[in-house]
């Protein structure tokens, strides 16, 4: 058994060798042996291609403002592994993670010897979270972020109070399908019988799939743009402002401290979720909680400004939809500045369109790489570039040189894989302190 944090983390990460194994049988096996902790917690399920993490954060922040003790399960982590299991935004302690690993390891060892095969890293962490929130540190509600897809995701063993599907994009197509409809089918797999579903999905093809699943499940559906909407949208220097309306009422001049017009859609889904919780599940949430929660919500790596002089921004735009959202913000916010972009990505993404979009909005586009098994090399990315093909294998050296030269009329945007950003952010912070 484990007595140090390092040994526990090494064992968890070693499960990565098993890759992705869609299906719920291993989760169900472990949860039965644990006494079904998933049945002892109230949950909210959040799926979608983009916006999951931000929506989880908005919702958690509002509920926390209303006085609730809120657990969250998110992925990937950004600065510390423990973030994946948090209460009121605070990651679990190293000691708690050791205890959880010691609970789950014997089950994983036993599963390894069965025909089901051993649990993956994500399955192990999911089971740990459910045991933690049910047995070790009870909370009022837990918000679960889907890891991949939905239908066969290991989080899909819960029966939530409500489900949220934020968006649909063409990501992980090798696993989820090549069309919006096919991907929507997988995402809609989190819809449970009679459980309300809230969605910010916009594509007609995807929406029809979600509607069909909701009808079959007799689940009330609340669609952004139909059953709830935003208006008076305005980009502020350090966030966004908008009004919100639904069948439950209207709220004017809401503000977020997260940059990006797409964050208004994510915030609207969170507000709608709060109205459903208030009206159908007796949660005590008032307008001031919504206002305070939205403005206080913070999610690292999403159009996050690290410095205004020099102007440095990081954004985890790791798929085509994310890159399009970033490009839109560049065009609206930095039209009068020289835009420098440093980009790193995983090689299993659809990189050609992503890079073509960055080519259009960047005055200088530099490709780089980082220490991660699936990371594309800087040269591989540069070969895809059509207009620009500058690359730097050593991103730390590039950042050091660039930060010393950055002028007042320039902005540096570091973007791509969230795994890359989690490495690069502390490097940038260290350089800014010097």
From TrEMBL:
Pfam families according to UniProt: Mur_ligase_C, Mur_ligase_M
One example GO MF annotation: dihydrofolate synthase activity
Start and end residues of each Mur ligase C-terminal domain: 301-417
Any single Gene Ontology cellular-component annotation: cytoplasm
GO terms for biological process, alphabetical: folic acid biosynthetic process
Mur ligase central domain ranges (all copies): 46-273
UniProt enzyme class: ligase
Domain of life: Bacteria
InterPro entries xref list: Folylpolyglutamate_synth (IPR001645), Folylpolyglutamate_synth_CS (IPR018109), Mur-like_cat_sf (IPR036565), Mur_ligase_C (IPR004101), Mur_ligase_C_dom_sf (IPR036615), Mur_ligase_cen (IPR013221)
Cofactors (names): Mg(2+)
EC number: 6.3.2.12, 6.3.2.17
Recorded catalytic activity of this chain's protein: (6S)-5,6,7,8-tetrahydrofolyl-(gamma-L-Glu)(n) + L-glutamate + ATP = (6S)-5,6,7,8-tetrahydrofolyl-(gamma-L-Glu)(n+1) + ADP + phosphate + H(+); 7,8-dihydropteroate + L-glutamate + ATP = 7,8-dihydrofolate + ADP + phosphate + H(+)
Transmembrane segments: none
Pathway(s) it belongs to: Cofactor biosynthesis; tetrahydrofolate biosynthesis; 7,8-dihydrofolate from 2-amino-4-hydroxy-6-hydroxymethyl-7,8-dihydropteridine diphosphate and 4-aminobenzoate: step 2/2; Cofactor biosynthesis; tetrahydrofolylpolyglutamate biosynthesis
Keyword annotations of the record: ATP-binding, Folate biosynthesis, Ligase, Magnesium, Metal-binding, Nucleotide-binding
PANTHER family: DIHYDROFOLATE SYNTHETASE-RELATED, FOLYLPOLYGLUTAMATE SYNTHASE-RELATED
Family assignment from sequence similarity: Belongs to the folylpolyglutamate synthase family.
Subunit architecture: Monomer.
Protein name: Dihydrofolate synthase/folylpolyglutamate synthase
Organism: Mesobacillus subterraneus
